[in-house]
Description:
The protein has helices spanning 6-29, 46-65, 78-94, 96-100, 106-117, 132-147, 149-156, 160-168, 179-203, 208-219, 237-250, 254-261, 265-269, 272-294, 301-316, 335-344, 357-375, 397-423, 428-439, 455-470, 472-499; strands at 385-388, 391-394. By secondary structure, it is an all-alpha fold. A two-stranded antiparallel sheet has the order 1-2.
Amino acid sequence: MKEKSSSYEYLAILGALAYVIIMLGIIMLVPVLITPFYPDEKDTIQCFVIPGVLSIFAGYLIKQFTTGYKLKNLKRNSGSVIVLLIWLVSILIGSIPFMMTGEYTFTQAIFETTSGFTTTGFTITDVENASHLVLLYRSTLHLFGGVGLILILSSILSNVYGMQLFSAEGHTDRLTPSLLHSARTILCIYLGFIIGGTALYIIFGMDPFDAVNHAISAVATGGFSTKNDSIGYWHSVPIDIVTIVLMLLGATNFMASLCLLKGNFRRFLNNSETKVTAFLLAIVTPIITVMFLVENICPNVLSAIDNAVFQAVSLITTTGLSTINDFLPRASFAIVPIIILMLVGGHTGSTAGGIKAYRIALAAKSLKYDVREQIEPKRIMHSRDITRFDKHSQITQSEQSGNYTYILIYFAIGMLGTFGLTLCGNSFSESFIEFFSALGTVGMSIGLISPDMSNAEMWIIIVGMIIARLEVYIVILGFSRIFIDVKEIIMKRKNRKCAK
């Protein structure tokens, strides 16, 4: 029997990565399906077929090589290693088609791929001059990255790999008693929203290609568009409304979405995350509306309300789609509440980024209880609880401390990224907004994102986007575990040499 050493464990992880590499090959082949509709772009096919086929073949070979190595009895934090490696490998391999087009450098390709998989939406692509295959590939990255690479694998694999990977990515809400069934249910809800959104877009005037891409972008809370003016290109209130609904559905916890689909509205409305989102939208939307009128960005009140609701929803869902060109640079006095929406983000267990509404609700509740205990007499005892899906959960001291710590680390990383961008020659305010937009996977730019960005700026934002998608602890714990394991392997080899 093979020794359960670090080397054994990493071979088992490599076996799990084999499935990912095969899936990446399939992702790269998706754009080829539309070539009959765009025969003039046949020269671009090789950019997807060659890496796609090679990726599938490489994954198959790796799987054969690692047969017999199973993910069992993982060491502490090894789940974070699996998640981290899966995403890093996916970004690296997924960037190959961009590089093969000859229009992206290595750094630019990694930037665009990271933005796609993490559903941030920052782009350096000239979308109105790019090929349809490239545009669909970008949306395909949103499609898989939005719901989670590991969740998709979990819904396909019915063996122990699938379940361990599902838990490793941090999926804790079970929609059904079976984890496998939960993964497949989430995927069905996700695809159902996209299909429904595509149909509505077509009904309201989008052509099928644009409809598919924007439905994926909205539900995945990604932000990639096929137009330079984003959703504003259509100047259509019905299209704006469809997009708002899709963005909100994408940023909603899938368990909450299931409550909506089952008609359990009371349970949905009692969810603490729903209350946080509704409260912030009710406060910030009027401020943005006034700003649009004062700055003469919108011609009348109705237009200002429509655009304000759209931008507010796009921000808090961390989607980044827009109806107003250069929205952030023109935000003037509304910039502070806008930043608050960017920081909070969507629900846990959704496709959105940010600190997450549940953590904000938990922090607010904890602060309320702490202040109350300081004011009221010591003899009065109150329970500390928070409502989630109509259930009152007790807030433990450990949970409260851990939540404060997470928020503190989130801001610390944000300030480090801001400092890095200022060293590249940008102002503090620009650096702050741009990096926190990346850290929240919002994807709205203050003006720094362009093909002319330096490599240093791109890599700083790439790191921010990866941390945002995987969340802080997975990245920290994953790299820590890798460092410890590498050190252990090196020490064992040294001891063996000494023994000889």
